[in-house]
Design a protein that fits this description.
There is one protein chain. About 20% of the residues lie in helices and about 30% in strands. The chain has about 450 residues and is α+β, with helices and mostly antiparallel strands.
Length: about 450
């Protein structure tokens, strides 16, 4: 052992020549080397909360945009309409039925129901189911023996007016008849039938496969939309091979003198100067002020005012017509859409004229200017032919249409004139048409 130790000691350098170790630097170098040799860590997976949040956000971004549900209207109830608007007419010697028309103070009926009766004898009543009848007096303001029509003005309002259908029904269409027949006539009786044909004589009559009983005369014949298509008037007699066959006066006859009587009654006696016509009584939510001396042509849903002597079949430089009519709006239809539909229904009779300087009357949103390409019969233009018969447009006739909305209807104002220049000069005429507020 001593030998080994001696050998080890002998192999070492003297103690005063050894370097002093730097412990701090050695440790620091070792730590740095360890950090340099450490493998790069793999990023940690995201937390579950972040993962779920990202998935939800992506799902929301990817979901399809929902399509708005279509707006649907409740279908009209013709039975409820008949109950609200058909009245009973009583005199000292007979009774019949009538239909509210125009406003809450006007009733249309057959002339034979009130013929020869004084105002003192006339009583008109209306009752809803389960209610006591409301009774008022009435006066006759219009009679037409040729058509067997009469118009009454009530002392007090009784019910809402019925809307009038402008088109004839088709053979096979269902008809609902409301009235007060002699049997059970104290309460409204509603029966049904179908259109069996037409009798186109002095007045247009609609044949139906249902009898018209005494007391039904003057009531309402409604289509499936609750529109008035005719007035029950008479049945075939046994001598005529009678049975279940009745006749209606077509609602197409509610024009001319009858609508003029409505307008005159609602507007009062004609005064000097311009005259306003609240044509809501015709089914158009508007008021038209007619220049003094101008002629009026009107029907249910339509009115025009014509410069004296104006004739669409002989257009001259002084030709002027302006007016207004109403249409049922299609769901979501704009004023522009109404005018597009108008042009489409004219079967290409019009050519559009591009103009950027056309003013709009108050309450209207869109306008177009058109020219009649050639002399044509616009038999497919529902808005005009259905109220005025066959509308003849002369070649070169300029027409400006403006569309607006009022009371859930499309209202179209128009000017017809002989030239573009004349149409421009007639701008002020459209300011005479004021829409009623919704």
């Amino acid at each position: 052992m001593l030998v080994v130790v001696a050998t080890l000691v002998t192999g070492c350098a003297p103690s005063d020549s050894l370097p002093t170790p730097d412990i701090h630097a050695t440790v620091k170098a070792a730590v740095q080397q360890a950090l340099a040799d450490r493998p790069t860590p793999t990023p940690a997976a995201p937390g579950i909360q972040a993962t779920v949040k990202a998935a939800v956000q992506q799902a929301l971004a990817d979901r399809p945009t929902p399509t708005p549900a279509a707006v649907t209207k409740e279908p009209p109830d013709p039975y409820a309409i008949a109950a609200a608007s058909v009245v009973r007419i009583e005199t000292a010697s007979r009774s019949g039925s009538g239909t509210m028309l125009g406003d809450s103070r006007h009733v249309v009926t057959n002339r034979h129901v009130i013929e020869g009766v004084s105002a003192e004898e006339l009583k008109v009543s209306h009752a809803r189911e389960g209610e006591a009848p409301r009774v008022t007096g009435a006066s006759v303001i219009y009679e037409a023996a040729l058509w067997d029509l009469a118009l009454l003005r009530l002392d007090d309002p009784l019910g809402p007016p019925i809307k009038v259908e402008r088109k004839l029904p088709l053979i096979g269409d269902s008809i609902i008849i409301g009235g007060f027949p002699g049997v059970g006539g104290d309460t409204l009786t509603v029966t049904t039938g179908t259109v069996a044909g037409f009798d186109l004589g002095v007045s247009t009559r609609i044949k139906i496969d249902a009898a018209i009983f005494p007391g039904n005369s003057g009531g309402a014949a409604l289509d499936s939309n609750g529109r008035l298509v005719g007035i029950p008037t008479t049945s075939a007699t046994p001598e005529e091979g009678g049975g279940a066959l009745g006749f209606l006066l077509s609602a197409d006859l509610l024009r001319g003198a009858l609508t003029e009587a409505l307008l005159n009654d609602i507007s009062g006696d004609k005064a000097a100067g311009d005259r306003p016509y609240p044509i809501s009584v015709l089914g158009v939510p508007a008021v038209v002020t007619v220049p003094e001396g101008w002629d009026i042509v009107s029907a249910m849903g339509y009115l025009d005012a014509r410069r004296p002597g104006s004739d669409p079949r002989a257009v001259d430089s002084e030709f002027r017509v302006f007016g207004v009519f109403a249409l049922d709006l299609l769901p979501g239809e704009s004023g522009e859409g109404v005018l597009d539909r108008l042009i489409q229904e004219s079967s290409g009779a019009f050519a559009l004229i591009t103009r950027n300087d056309i003013d709009l009357p108050s309450g209207f949103t869109d306008t177009i200017l058109v020219k009649t390409e050639e002399r044509v019969e616009l038999s497919d233009l529902e808005t005009r032919t259905s109220v005025l018969g066959n509308w003849i447009a002369d070649s070169g006739l300029i027409t400006r249409f403006a569309a607006g909305h009022a009371n859930g209807q499309a209202v179209i104002a128009f000017i017809e004139s002989s030239s573009i220049g004349a149409s421009r000069d007639a701008d002020e005429l459209l300011t005479r048409i004021q829409l009623l507020d919704d």
